[in-house]
Amino acid sequence: MGAEENRVNETAAELTKAMTRLRARLRSESAPDEMPWTWSQLTTLSRVVELGPTTTSALAQAEHVRRQSMAETLSALRAHGLITSEQDPGDGRKMLISATPEGRALTATIPAAREAWLTGTLRHLLRPGEQQVLRQAAAIMNRIADAER
Q: pLDDT at position 60, please?
């Protein structure tokens, strides 16, 4: 294995570790113990709000999970009154999932708590140039997340 391959492997390992730690910290800053929903349910609900009426298959693909796993997540959200389903007028075999007003309101509160903590931390810890590096890294991370391979 060459030096370049080693650097790529090290980068992947460090990135995984950093993302895992930051995700855990963001969860703790959002007071998950006070909520009856799991983070995968909240992420899915946010995706439903973002995509508008959508299908289980589209959500599963967007969240990189199996359709069966997504169906379980949606069932829990439905039980809490956070989503509704109706037949797709263009294809009666499909159901379109939408967020209820309660679901939309919930998705507005969770990111606010996380972003407030992160904004304050970035402002306190990082210089403007470092903040710019993170903006660039976020764009790169989104490209990686959307990659086919």
A: 93
